[in-house]
Specification:
Blueprint: H1 4-12, E1 14-19, E2 22-28, E3 33-37, E4 41-45, E5 50-55, H2 58-70, E6 80-83, E7 87-91, E8 96-97, H3 98-104, H4 109-125, E9 137-139, E10 145-147, H5 164-169, H6 171-185, H7 187-224, H8 234-259, H9 264-288, H10 302-339, H11 355-379, H12 381-384, H13 386-393
Antiparallel strand pairs: 1-2, 3-4, 4-5, 5-7, 6-7, 8-9, 9-10
Helix pairs in contact: 4-6, 6-7, 8-9, 9-11
The structure holds adenosine-5'-triphosphate and magnesium ion.
């Protein structure tokens, strides 16, 4: 069909360099004539039916080759004949591109059908971006469409979820005509595109708003940022530091326990108890040193009272949650036993209906008490972590 060796020799004499936001720069010492060029490559005629696209970089070449190969079984793309690291030999696409065509012809409904059909093919063959500029779409003599320059349809993370480039490239009038056709031909698809178009418009408006606000608020923020500072009030600072250490300790401890294969819920309570105890000791130490036992209890500060109240509320909440989980567990256990035909019914609160049930509840309570003791042993808090606490306060 064509002399591959000759092609390789020619390509070796064409040097293509990509530039930022500009068409490629080309040094051509081969006898081939240029058909056209863009930002990724330059295209040369090899035979009356075959051209070669020479790329500035290998990734673009691999991408375009991959995208073209996805569509080789359809009639929409140029046939590919040969691939090198920086070039692809493919069928020359004749006809008139959609940009030129629409300069003299209207966008008929049957052309809109072809365009929607093209998008469906894009989707079917696995393109991530189902979108194309009108100048890369060619109308053939028989009225069918062909598409070139498909590298940007694949290997993408973010794409517009509707054919934005195609719509915008049509220009305002033809965009409206095309959307009217879509509304008539595929109303649900039209609604979806409209939704994305509106979301985009809204995002643009919000962006403008944010940018304007930005300018006016910068000075206010500069002047008022001191309101967020926390270290000036020493008492408050201690409370905050305490909170920080608590959070870090808890997070690290849970991580350690998960790594050891222990259920983190089992140790949460033990951690809080341990921490409260340490806090109490610290407060007492702070208030009276070694002979604190001989002194009357110190009046709590406002912050401490607030913290105490918060801790109590937290404990109550946890207790309630524990009870709820216990009830769920009991109900589930009972359901499982019911399935085996052994258990007695359980009411909504998890209380068993007869004496046998009560005995079992007692057993469950005992089990939970035992578990709690086990938990404290498991956590190892009493033994191993007072040094961590001391470090934390240092
Ligand atoms: N298979 C083909 N048949 C005929 N002409 C082609 C073919 N491929 C490319 N061309 C011509 O070469 C020009 C540049 O090709 P193409 O658009 O693929 O380059 P590109 O660098 O990838 O462009 P872009 O910057 O848009 O990515 C096209 O506009 C077209 O005129
Ligand atoms: Mg391209």
């Amino acid at each position: 069909m064509f002399d591959e060796k000759f092609l390789e020799q020619c390509v070796a004499k064409i040097k293509v360099t990509t530039l930022e936001n500009e068409d490629v720069e080309v040094v051509n010492e081969s006898p081939l004539e240029m058909l056209g060029k863009g930002r990724q490559g330059a295209v040369y005629t090899v035979t009356p039916d075959i051209c070669v696209k020479v790329f500035g970089n290998q990734e673009d070449c691999d991408r375009e080759y991959y995208a073209l190969s996805l569509g080789q079984h359809t009639d929409l793309f140029p046939k590919v004949y040969h691939k090198g690291p920086l070039h692809i030999a493919m069928e020359i696409i004749r006809g008139v591109d959609l940009r030129e065509y629409l300069q003299s012809q209207p966008l008929s409904k049957s052309l809109s059908v072809k365009l929607i059909d093209m998008l469906i093919t894009f989707k079917e063959i696995g393109y991530e971006r189902i979108d194309h500029h009108k100048r890369q779409i060619y109308l053939q003599k028989d009225g069918s469409l062909k598409v070139i320059d498909v590298a940007r349809t694949v290997w993408r993370d973010r794409v517009y979820p509707y054919p934005r480039k195609l719509l915008n490239s049509l220009g305002q009038d033809n965009k409206e005509v095309f959307l009217t056709h879509v509304q008539e031909l595929a109303p649900t698809l039209y609604q979806e595109w409209l939704h994305y178009i509106r979301m985009e418009e809204l995002s643009q408006e919000i962006y403008q708003l944010i940018m304007e606000e930005d300018a006016s608020k910068t000075e206010t923020v500069k002047a008022m940022s001191h309101k967020l500072l926390t270290r000036e009030d020493e008492e408050r600072y201690v409370v905050l530091m305490y909170g920080l250490m608590h959070k870090v300790f808890k997070e690290q401890w849970i991580r350690t326990m998960i790594a050891k294969g222990v259920d983190p819920n089992e140790i949460l309570e033990a951690i809080d108890e341990y921490w409260d105890e340490q806090k109490r000791e610290f407060k007492e130490l702070e208030a009276g040193g070694g002979d604190r036992k001989n002194q009357p209890p110190r009046e709590l500060t406002k912050e401490e009272k607030k913290e105490q109240l918060r801790q109590e509320k937290l404990r109550a909440k946890k207790e309630k949650e524990k009870q709820r989980l216990e009830r769920i567990r009991a109900r589930r256990e009972n359901r499982e036993k019911n399935k085996k035909g052994k258990a007695q019914p359980v009411d909504k609160k998890g209380k068993k209906a007869d004496k046998q049930g009560k005995d079992k509840n007692k057993k469950a309570e005992k089990k939970s008490k035992d578990n709690k003791e086990k938990k404290q042993n498991k956590s190892g808090l009493k033994k191993g972590y007072s040094s961590w606490w001391t470090f934390g306060l240092a």
